[in-house]
Amino acid sequence: MKFYQPLDFSGERFEKFYKNPAYFKLQRKVKGILVFIGESHYGDFMLSIPFFQGLKEMFPDAKIIFAGHRLDGLEKFSEIFPFVDMYYEVRMRKKREVLLKWVSLFRLCLKEKINFLIDTQRYPVINLILFFLPVRYRLGYGTGCLFSNWRFNQRGREKVHDIFQLLSLLRVLGKRYLNLYPNIKFPDLYLAKANPVIQKSDRWISIFPGASEKVKCWPSERFAAVADALYEMGYSIFLLGSARERELLIKVREKMKYPATIPVLIDEEFGRNPVYGVLFCSKSRLCISNESGGVHFAGLVNTPIVGIYGLKSPVKWGPLSKNSIALYKELNCSPCKMRKANISCPNDRKCLLDISVNEVIEACKMCLGEM
Fold first, then answer.
1. CA–CA separation, 256 and 317 (whole Å)
2. pTM here?
């Protein structure tokens, strides 16, 4: 068992772009930037925050528009991450919708005076469709950078963490220094609501037992066993999740021998507003999570994480926090190819279920310095 280290591209790969930064020349020309994110979950959005922060630093006077699936409460992040000026809902899940969505983006570009498109997708059809939007500058790595004004070497990207692939788009514009952990100032309104809960202990551990897909969830009774072990070590337990995960959170607490705090049961807003998820993580000594948004909530505030990975490899979506551990069995069938094909697992989720309670507890002790 070892601490996880996300892999980045070698620095030398971008040296030629740093010598004469393109964004210096573009700053006065670019008025609006459309960043096409497409389908996303909270974890995907959290991973994109360092990218949007770097983009805002490069183009402070430009209007930055997030184009993609606008999740519930997404705009609330602007209160702590003021890097996105507008969220625009657009999803291209069905072929018959593509033309209508393209027309809506075309109109958006004209209305908001967008002259810079950043395409974060690797789907050739989407790359081609976006190419026909009325913008002057284009940046993207899809289709071998075919539709991008700036091209760069992507060799070895399969071993590089997804955050560094996204940040590579800023590096080719000449941005050398990028902060993975944004400086966050929580508004007083948030602190006033959360502090009565947080102040009950100074040794919190946050546990996220849910995920966007049930197939990615480690069993609830195992989370309960880990929580009990940590409680016996003198830690207090937060069970965190969205309002839709109330039943799961209650189920975990019912299986525990010791008490745990479920913020969403105290105030519904704690489960509806994702900013509170980041706030509770920032006040925790450690976070434990399935491969889900919880990993990336904690990653933004650099809280150590024990990530439980089954279907997906942590190589691409592992925790970014320092002193974190990603538990992953890396079986012959990993990462899972059957989930996207909607085929039941013939190995009964062995990749996930082979991760034992003791392994998670040992990983927690290591992250907490309790070994």
1. 30
2. 0.91
Taking Cα atoms as reference points, which of 254, 276, 248, 247 lies closest to residue 263? 276
Q: Exposed/middle/buried for 247, CB within 10 Å: 0-12, 13-18, 19+?
A: exposed
Question: Which two tokens mark 336?
Answer: 């899972």
Partnered with residue 289 across adjacent β-strands are 208, 307
Strand pairing partners for 284? 204
Could you count the other beta carbons within 10 Å of the beta carbon of residue 86?
15
Give pLDDT tens digits for 330-364: 777 767 666 554 557 766 777 888 999 999 999 99
Burial of 63 (0-12, 13-18, 19+ CB in 10 A): middle
Q: Provide the 10 A C-beta neighbour count for residue 233.
A: 14
Phi, psi of 126 (to 5 degrees): -65, -40
Which residue reads 């997708």 in tokens? 121
Tens digit of pLDDT for each residue in 57-69?
999 999 999 998 8
Q: Which domains does the chain have, with CATH numbers?
A: 11-171 (3.40.50.2000), 188-368 (3.40.50.2000)
363, amino acid identity? A
